[in-house]
Specification:
Shape: globular
Number of strands: 6
Number of helices: 11
Order of helices and strands: EHHHHHEHHEHEHEHEH
Distance between the termini: 14 Å
Strand order of the largest sheet: 3-2-1-4-5-6
Helix content: 40-55%
Strand content: 5-15%
């Protein structure tokens, strides 16, 4: 890695960037929507729901149903996703090695609640790397696609937004980072490059082994 990085803070999304959870949560949601009689292609579901807060996800599901969700839907979804993650969840390949070598401070900023982040990071033995550096949409008035969460994280470290690099795997996260005045690279490990570039990502990359050089180069 170059000795000098143009960035002073690396801000990572959690799901799909640090922990490989998007496939699991999407599958569970797909199954539960099918049980409610909602017919939707898996690819369309990923496009519609990835990157949103859970509250917004609930709103979108209610729109699909044209009716309120069953009262126990949220609790059942959490129980089923946590059970699936306990059995299957792994770190995104290469993230641990990348974090070992990156020299600038890093943190996580996620639309997910703190409890979920601590659960997924704990399951993947990554929690100790991010203690005291976890930021949730619950910490701010508005989650992604608004810039509040990223600006909150930057203020915590006392770093100007223009010196921050964000890594995102969702269009809403890319939009949020841009609105915060930050540079944003799209991780396309499970998201099409085109979707991230259309949202405004400055560049995309497919393997976490590339992150080290990206942090050391503004490009």
């Amino acid at each position: 890695m170059p000795h000098h990085s143009p960035f002073e803070l690396l801000i990572l999304d959690c799901d799909g960037v640090v922990v490989d959870s998007e496939r699991i949560t999407t599958r569970v949601l797909f199954e539960m929507l099918g049980e409610l009689g909602v017919s939707i292609e898996l690819a369309d579901l990923e496009l519609k729901f990835t990157g949103h807060t859970f509250a917004r996800t609930v709103e979108l599901i209610a729109e699909l149903l044209a009716a309120p969700l069953p009262r126990d839907f949220a609790a059942e979804y959490r129980d089923r996703t946590f059970a699936a993650m306990e059995a299957e969840l792994k770190p995104v390949p290469g993230i641990e090695r990348a974090l070992d070598q990156i020299k600038v401070p890093y943190c996580i900023a996620s639309n997910g609640p703190h409890a979920k982040m601590r659960k997924t990071l704990g399951l993947t033995s990554l929690l100790s790397r991010f203690e005291g550096r976890l930021f949730s949409s619950a910490d701010v008035e508005r989650g992604k696609p608004y810039p509040d969460l990223y600006l909150f994280a930057a203020r915590h470290f006392g770093i100007r937004p223009s010196a921050c690099l964000v890594v995102e795997d969702s269009a809403s996260g890319v939009v949020a980072a841009l609105a915060a005045g930050m540079r944003v690279y799209g991780f396309s490990g499970s998201t099409p490059d085109a979707r991230l570039l259309e949202a405004g990502a400055h560049k995309t990359f497919r393997r976490m082994s590339e992150l080290l050089s990206l942090v050391g180069c503004a490009g």
